[in-house]
Amino acid sequence: MAISEPRVLDHVEFQVEAGKIREFVRATFAEDPVHTSADVARDAGYLAELATATHVVVAGHFRDQQAMVTALGLSLERVVVGSVSWKYARPVVSGDRLRGTRRVVSDEQREGKRGGSMRMVTLETEYVDDGDEPVVRVRELLIERGTSS
Predict the structure, then answer these.
(1) Buried b or exposed e, range 112-144, using 16+ CB within 10 angstroms
(2) Dihedrals φ, ψ of 51, to 5°?
(3) What secondary structure, in 3-state letters, does the chain show?
(4) Cβ(105)–Cβ(3) under 8 Å?
(5) What's the Cα-to-Cα distance from 84 to each of 27, 54, 98, 117, 144, rounded to whole Å?
């Protein structure tokens, strides 16, 4: 069911660092030098090195993920990530300080195609910059498989 007033799960704040961007570049095999050279990034119209598309997952290092699992009453051994999507208001660059608020936007039970139920929890994190301007919205679908009977 969609939640009329989404429940806030947590808040997170972190600095986007050039070194961490380079780590994501290596991990994702990104080749564009806008991610690793401030000069190339500025020549391309960015203020600093451009973060990779999925960079804000680094927020997980600053969050108490166990507290989130507990707050939702999830059984972690039965949880899989169904999907993640990112919607950008502007590019994320080195030097940005981002603040995110994670909310539960829906929480529903569904019957699986092969029997058994699944709990589907949709979370949304809105990240803003130091000027409180929106930067990126991340939407995650967590699926908790039902217990075997």
Answers:
(1) eeeeeebbebbbbbbbbbeeeeebbbbebebbb
(2) -70, 155
(3) CEEEEEEEEEEEEEECCHHHHHHHHHHHCCCCHHHCCHHHHHHCCCCCCECCCCHHHHHHHCCCHHHHHHHHCCCHHHEEEEEEEEEECCCCECCCEEEEEEEEEEEEEEECCCCCEEEEEEEEEEEECCCCCEEEEEEEEEEEECCCC
(4) yes
(5) 18, 10, 19, 22, 15
Q: What is the pLDDT of residues 72-126, one digit of tens each?
A: 999 999 999 999 999 999 999 999 999 999 999 999 999 877 778 899 999 999 9
- CB 35, CB 18: distance < 8 Å: no
- How deeply is 93 buried, as exposed, middle or buried, from its count of CB atoms within 10 A (0-12, 13-18, 19+)? buried
Specify the pLDDT at position 3.
59
* pLDDT on residue 142: 96
The mean pLDDT value for 22-42 works out to: 96
